[in-house]
Amino acid sequence: MTLKKLLYCSILISCQFISAQHRIGIEASLDDKKKIIAIDQTIEYHNTSSDTLTEIFFLDWANAFSGKTTELGKRFSEDFLKRFYYAKEEERGRTVIQSFTSNDKYLTWNRYKDLSDIIQVQLNSPLLPGERVSFQLTYQVKIPSEKFTRYGYYDNGNFHLKYWHIIPAVYTDNWVLYSHKNLDDLYAPMMDYDIKLTFSDKYTLKTELNSNSQTATNSKKTIALSGANRNKVDLYFVQQDLFYSFDLGHTEFLSDIEDNDLGNEMKLVATQRIFDFLEFRLGSYPFDKLMVSESDYKNNPVYGLNQLPDFLRPFPDGFQYEVKQLKSITEAYLENTLFINPREEAWVVDGIHILLMIDYVNQYYPKMKIVGNLSEIFGLRWFHLADLEFNDQYYLAYKNMARLMLDQPLNTPKDRLVKFNANIANAYKAGIGFKYLEDYLEDDNIIQNSIREFYEKYSLKYATQHNFKEILTKNSSTKSVAWFFEDYIPTKEKLDFKIKKVKKREDSLEVTIKNFRNNAMPISLAGIRDDQLISKTWIESVPGTKKITIANPDLDKLALDYEQKVPEINRRNNYRNLKWIFNRPLQFRFFQDAEDPRYSQVFFIPEFEFNIYDGFTVGSKFYNTTLIRRDFNYKITPFYGIKSNKLLGSAGFSYRHQIGDHDLYMIKYIFSGNMFSYAPDLLFRRFSPTIQFFYRPEDLRSNQGQVTTIRSINVLRERNEENPVTTPDYSVFNVRHQFSDFNLTNFKSFLVDYQIAKNFSKISTTLNYRKLFLNNRQINLRFFAGTFLYNDTEKDGDFFSFALDRPTDYLFDYSYLGRSEDTGFTSQQIILAEGGFKSKLDNQFANQWITTFNADTNIWNWIYLYGDVGFIKNRNVAPEFVYDSGIRLSLVQDYFEVFFPLYSNKGWEVGQPDYDERIRFIVTLSPETLIKLFTREWY
Fold it and tell me: Which InterPro entries does this entry report, sorted A to Z (predicted)?
């Protein structure tokens, strides 16, 4: 090959990386009344690969809204987001393709593997490397409501269009095909756009593309737009223009993110400072416009910043606005210019994003606290939370997931992350990982220069995590960063180091460091004197234990990660006092606080409970549980019963031991005891040692779980001389295994329970199935069967018998408001356990065996029709067939429900004199149980 040809080929190849692969032409008309956009589109596809293509794939993410069973619909159901499943049909979106041609010839196309948002097109002739082919499409897009994803049509008539037209998929060595899963991670090729939009003249159009011309006729206007090297096009049609713009030199900035207390001049100053910071740290922004919106920000906010109510305004004027803009602008800056696979390798951009945010706040707001000005309020400033810096939130969010044993490797595909990791924790872990690496390298410029080099080299080009690794490895040649890419990024291996032993020499210290985890990640050791950092030594690898020797210039304390730059999950064992016997002094704190690893913290708080025997109980809870869960927890709560005039209380101790990542992943050891009244002027004492084995699948997004519980329940009850209990004290050994798998549309579980005591032995099983159909009809099925293996409890009546409608709860597992009541309001509370009946029948117990079947289905929204049938068998009596039916009001399913009996073995119950006493209810007052109702979509 001649030199001239070589030069020509190199220029051609470089141009392919500089200019967009494909060209898209669109003529579209928006019908704001029907909420439809009609599109005539041309796509000029350029095969820049070395492969011959016989088919082309396209992404049609607008059609992901077309039904409940699309990948997007399934995602919503997995996350317990009901609004899409119960939405009206006109609120959903879809794409209707009228024609798909190439060179005036119709093409064969289909929805690939029944995926609603991926189109497979067979070419009429093979497309060779370097060749181009043009496609012509005519289709209509029904725009969805914004209430699902914050883009679509708004109730006020505005439109925010995102993923609104068909685009080619990315082809590397193969096709990269991803469905829309509400992750904002479209992986699109670079495209040059020419768009002509026609819409009502009552709208103003906002977009990042360049506006070339505008015409108006018959209450319509047409705008021509163009843009080069774009991977997405967002359109905003607004009737009341709330967008403002700033001229930032070579870039026009558009936004509708508001702060009503801030003037335009201050907004301009803040925005200019953000742009100057990003251009200094990254490089120049290559486009003429950059636009961010309030809706985009709310999809990915600064969590914690906007969770406090506006009237508190804990942050100084302008700070909240500036941080919101920093988050939004940095995200747009990176997404518009770095073309890294956002589903497979999101950690690279996420890490750069969070690192830039951390450094910006450190540079311009170095003293900002995580709770803002609230840290200065009398009373609140005593909390350790008030001492934390604003940037500490990133470490806390990651540690939260690590402590919950739900953390996932940074290179996990985004659609396999649990929601909290996808939205928050993994990005934070990547960002603090860069700060950890920066501290280890002991030169801030290495990371900063590597990121800038990566940005300048790969801006508007396809890049991978390996490209970033090459640059960072080259620039950090004085120290190995292999551990960062081998241990920190691709694994969920946690960091936990401890100073195991210290030996004093004449002028030095021999320190033994223990690594509780199997990794090669480094840790720093600091020498402290008079609370001042005297020395700092990095230990690059600790395989199990490692001894090092450091100088001892009269040090009084040693600390691992003294400056708290390493994302350890446990910093409480990082300190060794050289001149005192206690490494961490004891600290009492009122109310729950953030964990302070420098102290052994004990929290206390007033506690109030209620039951009808003790009345209101007043006490104080002493506990060690911090805002983020820890492995060992205790809670000691002494109470005083105002009505019973007795000292009461409870105590509990638990320890969690993580075994692995899946299958048997955790063992929990528990010891608990409590003492309350179980009847007027009668106390019970309950003590229970327990061990639990927890199982889960490898896929952490799965809601499937299993737990095996082995426990001994020991109950001591005071005797009632007027109505003596034959067996006031008893012990029950209990083994149970429970399986559950649930999401919005399907719920199934089973429980096998075996109990053995001195006078009885019994076994039972409970099966539950719940199905939500596509027509929004729901059916709930439950089956219970139990039998005594032997039973010598006649002297105790039915206290240990199977219950048809209201278990006696001799194991004291249930939260009864009045557990011994036969009449009155509290006796109408039910727990859906054992027989699961709602009516109070004449024979409520079975001392031999029982089998019941419960079913209900909704007849309108939250109004259900229920029915229960079964057989109960008592000794020396023939089996009795039992049944009941009625209306169930499921206001909050499983948490707050009311049951109105209609017909049962007692006949028609409605209209009978005591009908108001037959109404039953479920109520959940436990804060922990209620919190799960709101957190289940995140974890």
Answer: Peptidase_M4/M1_CTD_sf
